[in-house]
Write a structure and sequence with these properties.
5-stranded antiparallel beta sheet; 9 strands; SH3 type barrels; alpha+beta; 2 domains
Length: 236
Amino acid sequence: MTDSQNDNEFIETYQTQLKVVEDAILRQEEEEGIASAELRQLRSDLREALSLFNTVNSNNDDSIIILDDSEPTPCVTLSSESDSSDDEDETDEEIESSIVKDIAGTNCSVKINCPVSGLQQHNAVVLSMESIADNTVRVLFCQPTRLDFKPCPHFLNDSCRFGDTCKFSHGFVISVNDLLEYAEPNYETLVVGQKVLCKQGTDDLWKLGAIESVENDNHVCVVRFTHFNALEAIPF
């Protein structure tokens, strides 16, 4: 079974769990007038897990990501400081809740130092605010190049048994100031010799390569992968 099939099974499981919880909430509301806080929190957690998992997977649908050496643009950062006089009466908890809601699910990119390939920029999505005081967030990578970069579906549902020893990613903590703009693929700029990342193989990991030829009419380019010197036609 491929990782993509596993991902689909996880999504179906979350959707089934969410349906069961929503039905239970509806019954409690009909019988008691209000559902328990535990059920409502579980519904919220399942919805968030599904939303984030779908966001990561939708960004993972691109077949080629161009590696651009130009200086990336910083992402818009969030601040707990308010510019509105109406917000002066907000409590710290209300301000924190507003910031968390604003930044969760944001597409971005970050630079990560890899022992093999050095400093690389990776597209990511913000999972959550890690610390308001330290101005840090937890991000998941959209085009994972290593197994420990691939998001752990069980972690998104708070059901991973392995914790810090899990071979998959539970997210990376990044300073908000280090968030960069998401690198959208621009297939019109594909040229021979260009360095790219491509999803290759059954593990759903992205591999480094260089373009050997481009067929714009057929929307296909031939990529030579760096680490195993193989040629493969990649649709775009």
